[in-house]
Write a structure and sequence with these properties.
Elements (H helix, E strand, L loop, with lengths): L5 H12 L27 H13 L5 H13 L5 H6 L2 H7 L6 H17 L3 H4 L4 H9 L6 H11 L9 H10 L7 H11 L4 H17 L17 H6 L1
Helix pairs in contact: 1-12, 2-3, 2-9, 5-6, 8-9, 10-12
Bound molecules: iron/sulfur cluster (SF4).
């Protein structure tokens, strides 16, 4: 069986699951992050900061744990980069404890916030040419490709495909990637898809949804919207 083209997989997933409304951000002074399918407006400074913080906190943990940390940071007024960079380390560690690796993550947040603060408004800093900004982000301690690309795509609106463990797993099972690897997978998907931040943002979210519903470590192929096109799934049945 030939590997299905990424664009047709995108269409099937969108039809099956609908728009996912990523990246979730809070829309009120008190509430937590919410998904906003169909949202096409501009992000505020605060929302961009929240996405950057969330992208760092979500490393090696699930989103529910991140939401608890974001809510604590928000109620402490720490979703502003100025305050985040000046916060005492111990205080920050306790606020992000629910996200795991809290000492490292507190340090990463302070380094990121300190750097971003020097660069001025996020809306301007994040709108630099993508390759320059990506290099800058990857030069910061604790920011790897997945975090950098999440920030670029979801906070900066740059057309770059975020690769995560789910994408690599699904892509391997579908036959997209013979040798999984971050840069290789990113190059392939960028080559196969129209260059669109909107499409990349939605597709990444849909792949996460697929991984949660069906394409788990032990896949549950029954009912998967891709089963007719998946060489791995067809062997399971
Ligand atoms: S058919 Fe099975 S292996 Fe293939 S994408 Fe769906 S869940 Fe994953």
């Amino acid at each position: 069986m030939l590997a299905p083209p990424p664009l047709s997989v995108y269409s099937k997933l969108l039809e099956a699951f609908g728009p996912q409304g990523w990246w979730p951000v809070s829309v009120s002074a008190r509430g937590g992050p919410v998904y906003r399918p169909g949202f096409k407006g501009r992000l505020s400074e605060r929302q961009r900061a929240e996405i950057c913080v969330g992208a760092i906190l979500t490393q090696n943990t699930n989103w529910n744990n991140v939401v608890r940390s974001l809510l604590r940071l928000k109620s402490a007024g720490m979703l502003e980069l100025e305050r985040l960079s000046a916060a005492p380390s111990g205080r920050l560690q306790s606020l992000v404890r629910s996200s795991g690796y809290f000492r490292q993550k507190a340090r990463k947040l302070k380094i990121f916030a300190g750097h971003a603060k020097k660069r001025g408004r996020l809306s301007r800093w994040l709108c630099q040419p993508m390759d320059i900004l990506r290099g800058e982000l990857l030069g910061l301690w604790g920011i790897g490709p997945e975090t950098a690309d999440s920030i670029l795509l979801y906070a900066g609106g740059h057309p770059i495909f975020v690769i995560d463990a789910y994408t690599l797993r699904i892509g391997s099972r579908l036959g997209w990637f013979r040798k999984p690897g971050y840069e290789r997978a990113q190059r392939l998907l960028s080559r196969e898809l129209p260059r669109s931040a909107e499409l990349y943002a939605e597709f990444h979210a849909l792949l996460v949804q697929l991984a949660k519903r069906h394409c788990r470590a032990v896949p549950s192929c029954q009912g998967c919207p891709l089963i007719a096109n998946c060489r791995y799934g067809s062997r399971q049945g």
